[in-house]
Amino acid sequence: MEALLEVKDLKKHFPVASTIPFKKSTQSVKAVDGVNFNVYPGETLGVVGESGCGKSTMARLVNQLITPTSGIVHFKGDDLVTMNKETLRETRKKIQMIFQDPYASLDPRISVGELIAEPLVIHNVGDKASRKKRVEELLEIVGLNKRFADRYPHEFSGGQRQRINIARALTINPELVICDEPVSALDVSVQAQVINLLKQLQAEFQLTYIFISHDLNVVRYTCDRIAVMYLGKIVEIGTYEQIYSNPKHPYTKALFSAIPKESPFDDKERIILKGTVPSPLNPPSGCSFHERCPVAIDICSKQEPNVVTTANTHQASCHLIQK
Ligand SMILES: Nc1ncnc2c1ncn2[C@@H]1O[C@H](COP(=O)(O)OP(=O)(O)OP(=O)(O)O)[C@@H](O)[C@H]1O
Ligand SMILES: [Mg+2]
How far is CA 187 from CA 56, 155, 183, 212, in A? Predict the structure, then answer.
């Protein structure tokens, strides 16, 4: 199947302000440091990893909210990075984002109807009457009353606000929706409702999702494939089954060992990692995980591991993996 999104060797290095006056800093935060992955039509690719590993930066690079230091982002075969502004504007309609904080992401002074219609106004689609109709339709699609259009964000709960955000993301019929921690700020019971809504909308409108989450239980119910990030890199990618039942990278093993056991017969031992995530300002040599890795050998501190394909849909970067 042809990929909807192809990301190749994508990097974002944020320059760091110099501490010496009039001297340009040569240091940079390697927030995303050579990431490769594809997303196929209709699937949900989960992105997991500890705080600061570069998940949100990667999301912002994919839809060109920020420009990459280097690398390629192909959407339906066209490179967003080198595309002219006008074409990028058109193409970006097809890529929408839903953010974590349903409180911060909705302007409190603008009515719900205006918020949802905003993408139509920005892209000059339809007239007042057709926009109003679309807003009502979208409110119903996300399970809200169409009369809510005249109300303001503060009148709604977190879950309802996230539904408004989802409606807004769907306004101009996107194909790819990037959800950055879409349910992290919600109560567990509300989380399930919003996840179900996202799933239902995916089936109804043939949406493709990139689903960023640090919650591995949420990922399990939403994702077909999972990419595991560590310090700006994808260290392992595979189907949920492969990542959960047969993880290859020591980091993935540790991360997934922290999920509560499913049954008393589950003999998975929890792996506690030593130390904390190193700074992306100064990532370790060789494999960036080696200082915390329980099975590291000599070569790990010296040489960066290659990507090893262990099964059709399963890849990991570790010196200790046998093909
Ligand atoms: N504009 C910026 N300037 C400098 N550094 C940045 C900038 N944005 C992000 N970073 C740094 O890049 C790294 C990755 O950040 P990012 O927000 O992508 O992580 P994340 O995986 O989304 O974390 P979280 O789970 O906490 O949301 C962090 O070290 C962060 O401090
Ligand atoms: Mg983030």
Answer: 22, 18, 8, 18
Cβ neighbours of 107 (radius 10 Å): 12
Question: pLDDT value at position 103?
Answer: 74
Q: Which positions of the chain have pLDDT values less than 50?
A: none
Q: Of all atoms in ligand 1, which is nearest to the CA of residue 100?
A: 27
- What are φ and ψ of residue 112, in 5° steps? -55, -40
**pLDDT, position 132:** 96
pLDDT in tens, 153-171: 999 999 999 999 999 999 9
100 lines ligand 1 (CB under 6 A): no
Best mutation site among 13, 14, 58 for ligand 1, i.e. most ligand atoms within 8 A of its Cβ? Answer: 14
List domains and CATH numbers for the chain. 5-94+174-316 (3.40.50.300), 101-173 (no CATH)
What are φ and ψ of residue 23, in 5° steps?
A: -115, 125
| pLDDT for the residue 265 | 64
C-alpha 148 to ligand 1 mean position (Å): 35
**pLDDT confidence of residue 54:** 96
Asked if 98 and 164 touch (Cβ cutoff 8 Å), the reply is no
Q: Distance (Å, rounded) from C-alpha 230 to C-alpha 50?
A: 7
Strands 5-15 and 70-75: antiparallel
pLDDT of residue 87: 95
